[in-house]
Amino acid sequence: MIFFSILNYINETYGFTAEINLNFPLIPKYQFENMLKGNGKIRLCQIKYKYFSDKALQLWELCYAFFDRAHKVNMSPEIQDYLLAKNFNIVFEDIIDELIGDHNIPAGLKEQDDGKLVDHMYTYKGLTTYEEDKPIYYIGDSKYYKRGTKIGKESVYKQFTYARNVIQWNLNLFMNDDTDDSILQYDKKNFGNVPKLRDDVTEGYNVIPNFFISAKLDDNLSYQDRIEITDKQNTHFTNSQFKNRLFDRDTLLVCHYDVNFLYVVFLYARNNTLQKQAWKSKVRKMFREEIQKMLSSQYNFYAMQAHPNEDAKKYLQEHFQQTLGKVFTPFNNNQIFSLALDKDDPEGNNEELLTELRKHFFIIDNSIGNNPEGDIAKVVEKEKIKYIYSETEADSLVLVGCIRSDAQRLWIMNEGKYNIRLNNGKKIDGAITPDRAFMNVNHLLLYQEEDMSIAHYYDIAKENSAPQFAGLSLLKSYRYPFNVKMTPQPTFMKRVEDKYKDRMYLMYEINTTAIPFQNGIQIDLRRLLEAFNDEGTPIGTPFVIPFKGLMKFMV
């Protein structure tokens, strides 16, 4: 009866699970409390002579040791027996703080201005970024909850308050210059290298990791290293003022974990610094990943970067209300933003917002904490050309022509003209039929036949002006470099007249100042010519392509 009464007391007081033989009556609670104060030892001494078997004597020794220790704890305040002390929460907090917490915590955080004392704090890689050099403060609370006990509202609210205080402390480092505040100045000097929790471009706030740790006995009472999301009804708690705003100052979260009590007591009691440090690293990594999983189950995460012709800061300022709390800049590359949208779509406008943002940003799926730079760079490289030039430029026509000699190149530069041969109703290699496209070109792309390289890209000098029809006499007046063999002068002119008298050309007036493509873009000339020169078409045959078509060959 005494033994099972002791087990029942341990069950009710400390949450240990033990089977009790209900065939034995239990000692009433008030009577058992008197036994803890010394009567238990007396009663055991009175009945010791009744037991002779080894098992009965061992059972007597266990019961006597229990009441003897309990009596000493009650009689001597200097003795601290962790397993039987009344305020075991304090012991458990100390164990957890030793195993996961940091000791070098700013005074303004551990002991907060409103009088609250945080159980556990440490810095570790943030939830939203992948960089090691952007740590954030993790906030923890540990309690030895009896089996079946739920976390109270007061405890949850306290954790939310801790997070709000951490945010304010962080902002004070950057925004408060009170030289009379000695604690603030100390924190600025020693902890001023922490990242700012608020992003000034988007006015979004980083997510604060916050968690509970409660003790749990393994079903088999093993010392196995086990820590996991709690099996209680509430695995996490959230608090927010506005829906669908993860990156908001008032959106806070707390996750709840269970740890194997016997393992942490075992680890705490061992004098093995390396083993403790390894467990600390493992647990911190796990806490971060589990909180990220919880967030990923609630939010879709994206990475986005502004189109080349878009001012991201200006856009976000002008659309502040639509993006507030949804967009944040957690990465070293501050041109890349993180976008989080609640999967439940509480406002009913997620798709509408994404459609609008895609008009101004490249957007890719990107899980929380993942480095998006490589993936988004591929998208930017592939798609950026579409956004560099205006719609007017995209629809303009480009004449792609060939330069066959150095003499022709010099003539183009000196005279500011370029001409292409017409076929005059006959099939002539390299000649063209002057359709509407050739009459309305806005730009000229020239390449050299000799080495197939881009020579120049020009504007047509008089926009929307038609080219001239030019015959032999007009070519002579412009000192065109006729392509005939060099012979004595009378013979040369005769050869020119014989070769060119029946030819007609379209002559374009051009601006000889070459136009560079934006952002260092180049043309894949060989691929371009292969696409527009059918088999059998002579190299150098001119053709017209819309600028948006030319974009496909830009690299």
Walk me through the structure.
About 40% of the residues lie in helices and about 15% in strands. The chain is an alpha+beta fold. The strands form four sheets. Strands 1, 2, 3, 4, 5 and 6 form a six-stranded mixed beta sheet that branches. A four-stranded antiparallel beta sheet has the order 8-9-7-10, with helices on both faces. Strands 14-13-11-17 form a four-stranded mixed beta sheet. Helix 2 (about 30-45) crosses helix 3 and helix 4 packs across helix 8. The longest helix is centred in the middle third of the chain and has 26 residues, at about 275-300. It is rod-shaped.
Oligomer, anyone? single chain
Mean pLDDT across all amino acids: 83
Distance N to C terminus? 87 Å
Total beta-strand segments: 17
- Main structural class: alpha+beta
Tell me, what's the shape? rod-shaped
Q: Helicity, in percent?
A: 40-55%
Biggest sheet overview: 6 strands, mixed
Low-confidence stretches: 77-86
Number of contiguous helices: 21
Portion in beta strands: 15-25%
Radius of gyration: 41 Å
Descriptors:
alpha+beta, 6-stranded mixed β-sheet, 17% strand, 555 residues, 40% helix
